[in-house]
Protein 1
Amino acid sequence: MTVNDDSFTNWKNREEIAESMIPMIGKLHREQDVTILLHSRSLVNKSVVSILKTHRFARQIAGAELSVTETMPFLRALTALDLGPSQIDIGMLAATHRADDRGLTVAEFTAEAVAGATGANKIDRREPRDVVLYGFGRIGRLVARLLIEKAGSGNGLRLRAVVVRGGGERDLVKRASLLRRDSVHGQFQGTITVDEENSTILANGNAVRVIYADDPTQVDYTAYGIKDAILIDNTGKWRDREGLSTHLRPGIDKVVLTAPGKGDVPNIVHGVNHDTIKPDERILSCASCTTNAIVPPLKAMADEYGVLRGHVETVHSFTNDQNLLDNYHKSERRGRSAPLNMVITETGAASAVSKALPDLRARITGSSVRVPVPDVSIAILNLQLARETTREDVLDHLREVSLTSPLKRQIDFISAPDAVSSDFIGSRHASIVDAGALKVEDDNAILYLWYDNEFGYSCQVVRVVQHVSGVEYPTYPAPEA
């Protein structure tokens, strides 16, 4: 048999194993609220090829390809356990078992590693928590996709309604069409039908009521059977506590803003300061996409090396706030054509750092250039460190952070030498460290951080909503502190 024959046979064998993984992963998710991860990437509702590619991607960060032949025994072991709601990383199980020298079987090691999610230790499955989207633009529709995708067993977040202004004839059909297909993010994964008579969009079995209103005070959500809901404001029209409080109508318990909050509104970056949210806080902000991109790696660098000062320059994709062609705009430069120009503009991300990292005394400045791409941006984070280090040491540190730390859902790591912006469309991380572009000299480090400013940010928003609603389930094996 030739090498080619051996390679093809090996591929077919791995395809067969990945195919047999799918019903196990699906059953755990539907029946027990268990999400199976591989190095913090969900394997729920993934195809055979996607599962194999996710395993192969481990080579980029861990240095060696992870095979389904290694992870399958751990998945089988999990199906034999009495598991409660949780997230379980079979990539981490395989890695930690490999490093363990006690001679435990896969079944014994797995049972020990996830003991906090089994038997008497497991947490109760939560009642569904209602969610309302106020606004249905770029972020609103992506958050809707994520909420529908994560509906799972129906015991997590449940998207009940979308509030929009009336748009005229066939408004509902047009909005459903925008949810169904997207020029940047592709087709919706599932089926969508429209019930115009009841002003409802049915997406993968989820009935989402479309409510037409020109102002928050016009809506009584209890009239639609909605109670104790979390409302996500995607409009950015109101950013202070007074304005956002107008959303606290009958049926709404909390308000989450998908833009930087002003005044005393807490700006939350999941993974960094989400644990500071007070139980009785009813209004909070998820900050900006750029703030979410820079704060986790900034924290990772500050914790290890100390940071004395820094500057962030974002090369940002254009947004709806800019004009397609030159026309009047209230902001400087943003009136010039977005698809035809690089546009210097301001960013509030640097000033927002102090809200998310109040213990960081370093002064961080920032600026931004909008460029003619529709999605994915890059933040160039230039830091003066408190001690000298080397490029190799920083790379090892950030690679380890992306794999095992509590920030592994926020920080990804890539060493591909030819990576470009479009490669990161659909990334669920807040930012991705580009290993090849990293520069370190003595006490100066320059990090190049890719981020999907639409989808990656939407994932961070959903994580915050999961946390405040009580359906953010623990992860096993527990990340290293």
Note: Residues 119 and 429 are 32 Å apart (CA to CA).
Protein 2
Amino acid sequence: MKRAAQVVFATVWWLTFALVCAVMFVGATVCFMVTVPFDKRRVIQHLYSCFWAQIMFYLNPFWRLRITGRSKLPWRGKAVLVSNHESLGDILVLFGLYRPYKWVSKAAVFRSPFLGWNMHYNGYVPLRRGDKASIVEMSKRCHAWLDMDMPILMFPEGTRSPDAEVKAFKDGAFRLAVEANCPLYPIVLVGTSDTLPKHGLMVKIAAKCHVQVMDPVDPQQFKGDVAAFRDHVRELIIAEKARILAAR
């Protein structure tokens, strides 16, 4: 009986998601055409996308989202944001920050209908993992956005954790912050693994998600040591995640 209920819920969820994406993409296209001539940073487009993503939480009374520390994030200015990565649901909850930033995401996602097309509208940054030319281009585009006082958001694990444990971090986000000499904001996600699975389509009925924005870390204190910077931030995220889980 429980399995049948979950199958029904997942089916309804994905059908709703597809309908929402189709409808909201029409609005995204209108938003892009109207705002791109004067909104070079595409802030309005991004905030529209935030609302689009949050609809799946607004429609589902069994998915709860708590965000703390949002006010720490800048509306304008150079900054790098990094978060642990538990599931596809991370994208939905991080849009709930309702703050300007540019995603760095795998290039394949940009080819998906509606969502990928809207990512192009937003000027998000594609990346093909393991492709040196793509990595160089990604870094160039990230620096261009930072020079326009637009923060960058990256998942330093590179891919979703299969067991919700924080995996090893890659250097990219931390090297970017060092090169741009800008603050890096660690963001902790808890409970998002209870939304969308790493593999498969079986969406879970209930989820209790928490997003915690931590205080910014100044890369200058590490004197160019990217590895030390990276490991320090990872330990901060692990410790804060354990604290949140213990308090539940």
Note: Residues 2-35 form the longest helix (34 residues).
